[in-house]
Amino acid sequence: MIARDPGRAEGLKLRLTSLGADVLVAPVTATAPGDEAVLDAAVADLAEFDWVAVASVNAVNALRGATQRLGVSLGSAGPRWAAVGHTTASALAELGVTACVPSEDHSAIGLVSAMTPLVTPGSRILLPQGDLAAPTLADGLRAAGFDVTTVTVYRTVPAAIDADIAQAWASDAIDAAVVAAPSAARQMAEQLDAQKPVLIVAIGTSTAAAARECGFQQVVVADDSTDESLTAAICKVLADNLKP
Asked: Are 20 and 91 in contact (CB under 8 A)?
């Protein structure tokens, strides 16, 4: 089971299907707009920032909406860009932005650690994020010496799991589930039985921690958020845990 929006899950689904897996796509959250007026103002003033740090594809999508509303290009704005993970960096590249991925630890903590040596007096950094974002990134960057401006660019809302998929979970027909965000882990725990012996493949350490806090017993973290890395993690965890 892939607990993501169908559009975001398609590439991973195709890879797993080609390997013989029966893949169910079950989004447990949906994305709603954030404060578009504040975001548009920040994008219009991007030249005033030294850095933009982006932690998710959802934030990139919100930035795309702002560029379309304003008729501007992010690539010519001036600040340096940092992304949490190669998937987010690839999404920014589609907007003409070259973002560094300054850490092998693709998490907020990893980004803070990597960017701390890069801060200079008065460095301003824009942090577009969701309404459920943990304060780890913003607080860590402030502690490092950055002047941080946060903008809530999207909101996360619950989405009901299809009854057939919920039944498959209840009847132990699902072997593994991919979870992409802490909010998704919490929604899964609200709608499904976390005590079922389903192997959870989490994107990032924060998602893994949330899954464990929700009661999921077997949780592993993929090396990266790319479809290739997720496929490798799923194959490994299933090979290690499923009986012949």
From this structure: no
Q: Could you tell me the domains of the chain? A: 2-28+159-241 (3.40.50.10090), 32-156 (3.40.50.10090)
pLDDT of the residue at 204: 83
Structure tokens that stand for 5 in this block: 């929006």
pLDDT digit string (tens) for 94-135? 999 998 877 677 678 888 998 899 888 889 999 999 999 889
- In terms of Cα–Cα distance, which of 211, 204, 143, 129 is closest to 177? 211
Q: Are 72 and 43 in contact (CB under 8 A)?
A: yes
What is the per-residue burial (b if ≥16 Cβ within 10 Å, else e) of 208-224? bbbbbebebeebbbbeb
Where are any strands of DSSP class E within 159-217?
176-179, 199-202
Neighbours of 35 (CB within 10 A): 16
Reported as a pLDDT band with limits 50, 70 and 90, residue 242 is low
Tokens 């650690």 -> residue: 113
Supply the DSSP string of 56-96, one letter for each residue. -HHHHHHHHHHHHHHT--GGGS--EEEESSHHHHHHHHTTT
pLDDT one-digit tens code per residue, 56-98: 999 999 999 999 999 998 876 689 999 988 889 999 999 999 9
- To the nearest 10°, report the CA torsion of 8, 11, 16, 17: 110
Instruction: Mention every residue, 6+ apart, whose C-beta is less than 8 A from residue 213.
Output: none
